[in-house]
Amino acid sequence: MMYVWAFIVGGIICVIGQLLMDAAKLTPAHTMTVLVVSGAVLDGIGLYEPLVDFAGAGATVPITSFGNSLVHGAMAEAEQNGIIGVITGIFEVTSAGISAAVIFSFAAALLFKPKG
């Protein structure tokens, strides 16, 4: 049953993104920003972690999870290191994912001919 809930919750997040682009006429960049900020706000008010516990990958795979990671890391580091932990926590939690994206994008650009 967990796979079904993951599919449903992930699908709902994707439908929200699609509706933002189709009905609200937002660009993909604006839609991504709205979804990341939504994940951050939901984590800030304590609603995203219960969603992750309920839906698993349905809540951790979409872009909303990136906002969740930013706030979650900032809050955890702020508890340990004070206000400076807000900044260092954001970089500490997200650095692996961002580094992987840059490295894999660079490798893809070397292996394949990008179109200009």
UniProtKB/TrEMBL annotation:
It comes from Salibacterium lacus. The chain crosses the membrane at residues 83-112. Keywords: Membrane, Transmembrane, Transmembrane helix. It comes from the Bacteria. Pfam families: SpoVAC_SpoVAEB. The keyword Transmembrane applies. This is Stage V sporulation protein AE. NCBIfam families: spore_V_AE. The keyword DNA-binding does not apply.
